[in-house]
Amino acid sequence: MIGCRCPVCTSDDPRDHRNRPGLLLQSDGVSILVDTPPELRLACVRFGVECVDAVLFTHHHADHIFGLDDIRRFNARRDGPIRCYGAEETLVEIRSTFRYAFGTRHYGGGLPVIRLVPVDGRFRVGNLEFVTLPVWHGPTRVIGFRTGAFAYLTDVKVIPQETVPLLQGLDTLVLGVLRWREHPTHLSVPEALELLKVIHPRQTYFTHIAHDLGHEETERQLPAGVHLAYDGLALEVDI
């Protein structure tokens, strides 16, 4: 956090050095981003990401979309547009925020070439079938994504009853959890642990972590099968 000298912000543990959260799914030669956080370019350089075939958007908040312009590098590498999937209201906001990418005027430099694809329910990207997972982030509707026995849910406070059955039988869940204390629009650690008693995933990784949670200390307090994610974490999952 800017200007903060707390133990986490000054930690020597590289797992405490966190950019805004995102995800890269790779399966049978297909690479799919979930969200385009502001540090997208830095993360792709750091972790050697060379190809992106599609993007799934959870919602339109700045920390999840402001790296979209850097998609243009992947346009050049694949010589074509990149499909971006999301809820209709999310895509409307993206079109407005990045209107220069959809207009007729060229403002200089390269432009991201993207195709917006609204989704609600089941859809396919390459060899993967996804199902959308509607949740609430305060007053904002967010969608998570499930493919196979893997699900990704970030920026969530309330999971509607109709979404709960879609989260059963998971091997791996990545879940947005902000801090120990309650927050009006994000899950706290205690709230998330209660939720896991209903969903019963085999393993869970908390993401979208605030600087309230030091990695090593928090890991010691979490139950078996529950962990903090960190930048660069790589998992083999059943998708």
Describe the protein's architecture and organization.
The two termini are 34 Å apart. It is globular, with a radius of gyration of 18 Å. By secondary structure, it is α/β, with parallel strands linked by helices. The protein folds into 2 domains: 16-118, Metallo-beta-lactamase, Chain A, CATH 3.60.15; 121-229, Metallo-beta-lactamase, Chain A, CATH 3.60.15.10. The protein has helices at residues 40-47, 62-65, 72-78, 88-97, 189-199, 215-221, and strands at residues 23-27, 30-34, 54-56, 82-86, 114-118, 122-125, 128-137, 140-147, 150-153, 172-176, 203-207, 226-228. The strands form 2 sheets. It has a 7-stranded mixed beta sheet. A 5-stranded mixed beta sheet has the order 1-2-3-4-5.
Features:
single chain; 239 residues; alpha/beta; Metallo-beta-lactamase, Chain A; 2 domains; seven-stranded mixed sheet; five-stranded mixed sheet; 6 helices; 26% strand; globular
Question: Could you name the ranges where pLDDT drops below 50 across 5 or more consecutive residues?
Answer: none
Helix content: 10-25%
Largest sheet: 7 strands, mixed
CATH topology of the largest domain: Metallo-beta-lactamase, Chain A
Morphology call = globular
Total helices: the number is 6
Instruction: Assess the beta-strand content as a share of residues.
Output: 25-35%
Report the structural category. alpha/beta
Instruction: Output the strand order for the largest sheet.
Output: 6-7-8-9-10-11-12
CATH superfamily of the largest domain: Ribonuclease Z/Hydroxyacylglutathione hydrolase-like
| Named CATH architecture of the largest domain | 4-Layer Sandwich
Mean pLDDT: 95
| Total domain units | 2
| Series of H and E elements | EEHEHHEHEEEEEEHEHE
- CA-to-CA gap between the ends? 34 Å
- Quaternary organization: single chain
